[in-house]
Design a protein that fits this description.
Pfam families: MarR_2 (PF12802). The chain is mainly alpha-helical and 160 residues long. It has 6 helices and 3 strands.
């Protein structure tokens, strides 16, 4: 007994493959720019940005992992690298010694501030400036809809 394989229409395939192409290409472009200009990866930039907006620039490893969609193992390696560079400081929570915390240092804040203009310029060059205002509105609407589908609990909702 054979089962028919579902197919996409040409329009569906074009949209799907276009999305996959962007999802595959954009992260490496962001990484390349940040590594070249600021000696950090896009993931490191994201971790440091998250910490910057937390009270006292501090969060638990679990909070950061959830906010960045990372495993604790990956995050631990990244935070160790950032700590060796003096950009973050790891510590144990005084309330619960089982909880590891990470704090953005003053040096980390300076590096993040230094990296941000180039990162924004790259985002503009690769995405924002390539689209009309109508396209940007469509992109915002489409990504919001896809975000709701992929993240029903809104763990990664923008504006938080």
């Amino acid at each position: 007994m054979t089962h028919p394989v579902p197919r996409m229409t040409p329009e569906e395939a074009q949209a799907w493959l276009g999305l996959i192409r962007v999802c595959d290409l954009l992260p490496s472009e962001l990484d390349s720019q940040l590594q070249r200009d600021s000696a950090m990866t896009h993931f490191e930039f994201g971790v440091m940005t998250y910490l910057r907006w937390m009270p006292e620039s501090t969060a638990s490893m679990s909070e950061i992992a959830e906010a960045t969609n990372a495993t604790l193992s990956r995050l631990s390696h990244v935070c160790s690298r950032l700590e060796r560079r003096g950009l973050v400081q790891k510590s144990t929570s005084p309330a619960d010694r089982r909880v590891s915390r990470v704090t953005l240092t003053n040096a980390g804040r300076r590096e993040l501030v230094r990296a941000t203009p180039g990162h924004i310029a790259t985002a503009r060059r690769l995405v924002i400036d390539a689209l009309s205002p109508e396209d940007l509105a469509d992109l915002a609407r489409i990504t919001a809809k896809l975000g709701e589908q992929l993240d029903p609990e809104q763990r990664f909702a923008t504006g938080r």
